[in-house]
Amino acid sequence: MKRFSEILLTGIFGVFLVAAMVMTIGNRDDVYSYYENRLYAEMPQISASNVIEGDFFNELESFLCDHAAGRQTLVKAKTETDVRLLRRPVVNDVVIGDDVLLPFNAFERVDEDSVRRQAESMAARHAKLRDVVESYGGTYLYTAVPCQYVCYEDSYPFYLNNREEFTDIEISSLTESMKKYGVSMIDMLPVFEEDQAAGISPGTDGASAEESGGAPLYSSKVDNHYSLQGAYLTYGEIVRRINETTSYHLGYPQGEEITFRKVEEPYLGSRQRKLMGTVPMNEHLYEAEFREKIPFTRTDNGIKSEASVYSGAAFENGSVTYSLYMGGDIAETVIDTDRPQLPSALIFGDSFTNAVEAMAYYSFDEMRSVDLRYYTEMSIAQYIEKYQPDIVICIRDYESLLATDGNGRLF
Question: pLDDT tens-digit profile of 169-192?
């Protein structure tokens, strides 16, 4: 009887393993994890070379882990245990603060000389790009915007790295190098802090940030990006700098000319989709509505698209993502307002341009935007030479200021 029980138990366990393996291997339809905000690994192609070198088995392991039967349920259960029961300060590389989710920053020793060399190199590259723009009479403007860990430095526990030392050296070095090379640069952190101190939320005719619903530091609590109000401040500062340094007199919507409307669906953000949906942090995105409607046409990657800067397709599982703005990350978008009396513009960078683009077309005839991570047809310098926009605006967040990865081909 004992022998029979052992055989039965072994058989049940074996059937379970085989069933789980069959379900895992057959589970190829899911290619994207909504809550983890990433693509799943694909089934690797087998060949003699990748078997001998070991790449096949590493890729196969990643595939099996990503497509394991019940994986999402198990990961969510583990996350909820870590957050609610064990109350860990860091879960899945997310720092859980008071009413804010922040990225975990690995501990680092900041080499000031190395940072300054990187800043010098980056400034020299943008000076060359500025020369391309000015060769046909255009204007070049570089804009640095603070990412989430910069806006919420004080929300990190004392024993974790908030990158304050690196941030201070990085921005001071880049500012100094840009000035040396004569590249016009805006640093948005002082603008955010000044506006925060004044208690003014943009586009609300002087109402306080709390009364208008604006984010206190114009940065998301659960995402790396700024809020739409933060993007609006950035857009306004860009227009003011252009008007100060050129003969243009660009307008942008202010006061009663613009209204910020709260999107009622909850915003999950990208901090592992608010830690697998287990953290009850209340945050909402906003849409901007102009009193003066600006008709326009839009093309994405050369294909005509709906004339809208907000995407209903962003709504998933009854919530909204940052893809609400411009439909997410698109390699190239062109918005044409058919107002030839206004200058044309190119805005390039990464996802930090999306929320700005949703409003900036107000000020331009034709507005082009390029995402450095996805546009591969030509370099940015070649793109500028081909289309010769009157104003070229680069927008980069603090985390990307000196990085070569994700900066695309400038030349």
Answer: 999 999 999 999 999 999 999 999
